[in-house]
Amino acid sequence: MKVRHLRPGEDWPDTIFMGFEGPNLDREWTWVVEEDSVVQGGLLACPMHGVIFLMRLATVVGAPRLAIRSLLDAALQDSKAKGMVGYTTMIDPTTIEGRKLNKLIKRTGGLQWPRPVVLAFGALAGLERI
After folding, report:
1. Which of 53, 79, 100, 118 has the fewest Cβ atoms within 10 Å of its own Cβ atom?
2. What is the pTM of this model?
3. Which domains, ranges and CATH numbers included, belong to the chain?
4. Strand partners, 58
5. What's the CA angle centered on 74, arms 70 and 79, to 5 degrees?
6. Structure confidence at residue 120 as a pLDDT band (50, 70, 90)
7. Cα–Cα distance for residue pair 119/102, rounded to 1 Å
8. What is the pLDDT of residue 8?
9. For the residues of 54-116, what is the DSSP string, one character each?
10. Cα–Cα distances in Å, from 80 out to 39, 50, 52, 100?
11. Exposed e or buried b for every residue in 59-89, given b needs 16+ CB within 10 A?
12. Residue 36 CB coordination number (10 Å)
């Protein structure tokens, strides 16, 4: 398995839905994992005040089991090298994948916010004032 950043001019693979595809992807904070030159998964992240925010992690159906771990390892190691001191992410505990990721985070010393929260978002286009 090979993990790399998206190349300049390379589009996000159609096989992996992220919900954040488009021309504004910051390739420095975007990783894909390949096996035999075929993209198997991707991770979108961004820096926030010394912490990397892991926004979205997804793989294709049937991706090798190591795909997610490879993406996380590469992103976290790259982030440490860039001076990041921690990470944060969102987990959907109602899914098998979310529960597995939560176990991995806890096993490696990560913590969970003690209260449920709701993710809120909106577009800036057309927004005048709040």
Report:
1. 118
2. 0.86
3. 2-107 (3.40.630.30)
4. 42
5. 150
6. confident
7. 17
8. 85
9. EEEEEE-TT--THHHHHHHHHHHHHHHHTT--EEEE---TTSHHHHHHHHHHHHTT----SS-
10. 24, 10, 9, 23
11. beeebeeebbebbbebbbebbeeeebeebeb
12. 7
Note the pLDDT of residue 68: 92
Local confidence band at 105 (pLDDT 50, 70, 90 cut-offs): very high
To which residue do tokens 């159906």 refer?
61
pLDDT at 32 over 70: yes
Share of the chain above pLDDT 90, in %: 54
Question: In this predicted model, what pLDDT tens digit does every residue of 5-20 receive, in sequence order?
Answer: 988 888 888 888 777 6
- The amino acid sitting at 86 is G
Structure tokens at 59: 């793989």
